Amino acid sequence: MQKIHEKTEIKVSVLVAFAGVSKSTWHEWRTRKGIETRHNHETPKLNWYTPEERTAVIKYVLTHKNFLYGYRYLAWQMIDENVAFVRPASVYNIMKEYDLVHKWGKNKGEAKKKGFDQPEAPHEQWHTDISYIKVLGVFYYFISIMDGYSRKILDWALCENMEGINIELLVARVKEKYPEAKARIIHDNGKQLTVLNGGDQVSCVQDDSLFEKYPFCREPYSVTVCRIEPENNVHVILEAFSEMLDETFVFVGNWEKSEYGRSLKEKFSVCKNIHLLALIYEPHIVNWLRSNVHVYIHGHSAGGTNPSLVEAMNLSIPILAFDCVYNRATTEEKCLYWKIAEDLQNLIKNKSGKFSEIAREMGEAGKRLYSWERIARQYNALYQ
Questions:
Q1: Is 247 part of any domain?
Q2: Are residues 86 and 177 in the same domain?
């Protein structure tokens, strides 16, 4: 546009109006001309950013350094929050310059050397694996055991759930086929694997004396109890309730355990409708908080049958769970599910009429599937 102005002598006001930019923007562009980049000594274009934007990026990344977000996500978040309009590549360059790019602790060439040695003969190592198969809207779980040396599939099973006991049964079956083998069982600790948990040790509690300690529970409230970790979508849940000022929300967790928790506590403690409680070790109080809840929010995205979820089911309370295969399998797809803050807000505002039905179905499923007596019978059957 500068060259057109110089060659045609068309007024700047006409050019900026045609380009759809302001005069101040055009003058800012002119001041950039001639500033050299470090990599090719040419006038910067798309990857140019001001010192103020650089400072804003560094400050934002440091604030969110424990959220396990990548540079692309951070770039778009900064644009959405009007922090800095910098493209992802520039955010990465700034993060790299200040050593803020996440390091995963693996050096090149070392990945295969750690964990276990490669097998030198058949039946030295057996590898377990689980894959998801969805048929007509129903999830099935394909479990296989492969010999690490020959890569032969030794046995497999198709199951309707992802319980750890199914893998143990399959391993026992393979051992019967190869009784002389003394293989090492190797699995990837994948999030598909579910260790069974019971939930019927909890009980509903009515104790009016606790209202003195927790007066905000006199009004209908939602509650979450979990470890303060990114994989539990703590930030998403808090973001949702921070925009619903008429909804009381109680969150019990280990806020001081990590920078992630401390930063969230600092950010959302100012919200009058959000009550962030430290860990509570008295089962009586925890059960009271959950028993009288308007709706329970479950944000876990990993871990199979989470204890907090099956306990909530056994308390027969309505549940809004993060939408992932583990939570759908645990709840038999009978509660309501969310992915982002807006989903959670819509469910609370528009689906409360279904909460009573969900509470009934959660109670029935919890007592049928997640009693310690039933789980004990399953494990006893495995070793008999």
A1: yes
A2: no
